[in-house]
Known about the structure:
single chain; 9% helix
Amino acid sequence: MTAALLSVLAACSASRVVRPTVAPEPESSPSASAVRWPIGPTPAHAGPRDTRVSTDDLDALWQRQLMVPVEGIPRGALRDDYTAKRTAGMHRALDILAPRYTAVVASDDLVIGRLFSGPVGGIVIYAYDPEQRFVYYYAHLQRYRKGLAVGDRVAKGSVIGYVGTTGNAPPDTPHLHFQVMKRAVGRAWWDGPAINPFSFFALDALRP
Length: 208
Ligand SMILES: [Zn+2]
C-alpha cells in the first residue's frame, strides 16, 4: 500500500456526510433561520420515509451507466475502499486519487442540488439524477467549474470541478471522495443510505 493511500486512510473521513445542523429556533424570534449551510432546491417527491436500498434500486443504478468521475481514470484503476475504516466509521465512498486540478466529471446526467464548503468534505457538490432517485456526492474539490450553480443540469461526462485537498483530505494526497446514495424520503434528500458504486461504473472517464 502506498504512503499516499495510507495517509488517506488515516485522515479521510469525508464519508461522514456533513449534515446541516439545525438548532432549535428561539421562540422569541420565529423568523430566525438556524440552517448553517446553503441548501439547494429539494426534489419534489414526497412519500413515506424510505432508508433501504432494494434490488430494484440497484438495477436502476446499473441502468444509469455511471461514468468514473475523474478524467483519465479507467474503471480498472479504481480501488474498492468502500468498507475501509475512517475516523467517523465506515468509509461508504470511494477515494479516487489524481493530480490536483484533474477534472472531476459528472458520473451521470445531473441536476446540481447543493453546493457548500465545510471542514470535513471541503468544497463539495451534491447532485441527483434526472429521476431524482440517486444522489452523488463529490468532496475535497479544489474548486468548482467556473459558473457552476445550484439547479444546473449537467450532461454525463461534463466537467463539474477539479480534484483537490479541501476539507480534511491530506494536503499531499489530492483525491476525489465520491459517494452514491439513494435519495432520502422523509428527511433531507441528500441524507439517504449509501450504495457502493464500485461495481456500477459502465464507462471510463477518458481524457478529452
Ligand atoms: Zn474518502
